[in-house]
Each structure stands twice: as C-alpha cells, then as structure tokens.
Write a structure and sequence with these properties.
two-stranded antiparallel sheet; six-stranded mixed sheet; 21% helix; alpha+beta; DNA binding; YceD; 2 domains; DNA-binding protein; 181 residues; DNA-binding
Length: 181
C-alpha cells in the first residue's frame, strides 16, 4: 500500500484500512539469511492528518520464521504489535516531536506502507532466538575442533586453567603484597 503525503495532508477525514499484505518475497529478498519464511501480514489502522503532519497508527499480526541464534534451526515467531509513525514533508517539522517518536521525512511524496510494515516486523525480532529444544536445555552445537559453550562453562574453564607457568612462579616471591591479584 502506498499513499500520497500531499493528498493525505489535504484530506480531513481519517483513512481507515484493514488488509492482508504479502511481504514474504520482499523481506526474503532484502534479508535472505535473516528471514526464512513469513505468513501473510494482517494490518489494520488509520492514516489521518493531524496539524500538518500525517499520523499512521496500525495493528500488525504475522508469523516470521528466522534462524536460531544458537543452531541456525528455523524458529517461528508470532508477532502481534502496534505502530505509530508520523510523516512530515520538511526537516524543520522534526523539532516539534519527542525523541521517542518515530518521524519520517517524506521527500518524494509517497508513504510506502509495505516497507514500513516490513521494517517494523524485523525490528520486533529479538536478538537471542532459541528453538523449543534449545530453551529446554538441549546440548550446545559442536563440530570437528569447535564447540559452543555457555558463559558459565567459560568461566569455569578459566578457573580450571589458571595454573601458573612454572617458569614464572618465582616472580611471585618478588611481589608478596600482591598475592591473589
């Protein structure tokens, strides 16, 4: 869906929408290693003129499939969230907003709602993603000459390997006041 910013600023009545978008191929093309699948995206909301700027509020639901951050196995993440974005036509208009507001300056007069929805879907994906088995304590992945370890295991290995090189052990006698440091 695309709207003209100038037409939206002229319109005094809010534009209501309730639609299903197919953004799967767009997101998979833009982010091939991050997006494995995407169900059709249901969007509903309003686009309205509010004092010289266009305000978009929308409710978005979909399920995105992304790789596990541990094993790269596919993980389906249901998403259900709200967005509120402001669209303005000049940089000067940015001063009237809070830092936490999402404000976009539109230079070519076109509000590309599909791109905004896709970007917000990706923004909802957490950094740490695990499959159900991984959350329940499945063994960490490993391979030939490598393995994934937890932070607790790493700390334990550091403690276990803190033996002093015998060639440097005599240096400890030179600084007796700094033992255990």
């Amino acid at each position: 869906m695309k709207w003209s910013l100038s037409d939206s600023l002229k319109n005094q009545e809010p534009l209501q929408f309730d639609d299903t978008l197919d953004l799967k191929s767009d997101l998979m093309d833009r982010y091939p290693s991050e997006v494995l699948d995407l169900t059709p995206v249901h969007v509903s909301g309003t686009l309205r003129n509010e004092g010289g700027q266009v305000v978009l509020t929308a409710h978005i639901t979909t399920t995105i499939t992304v790789p596990s951050s541990r094993s790269l196995e596919p993980v389906a993440l249901p998403e259900d969230f709200e967005i509120k974005e402001y669209y303005v036509n000049t940089q000067a208009a940015l001063t009237q907003f809070e830092e936490s507001d999402v404000v976009l300056v539109i230079e070519d007069d076109i509000i590309d709602f599909d791109k905004a929805v896709g970007d917000n879907i990706l923004a909802q994906v957490p950094i740490h993603i695990l499959t159900d088995k991984e959350e329940q304590g499945a063994p960490m992945p490993n391979g030939e000459d490598w393995r994934v370890i937890s932070e607790a295991d790493q700390e334990q290995e550091k403690k276990d390997n803190q033996s002093v090189d015998p060639r440097l052990a005599k240096l400890k006698n030179y600084f007796p006041d700094q033992d255990d440091k």
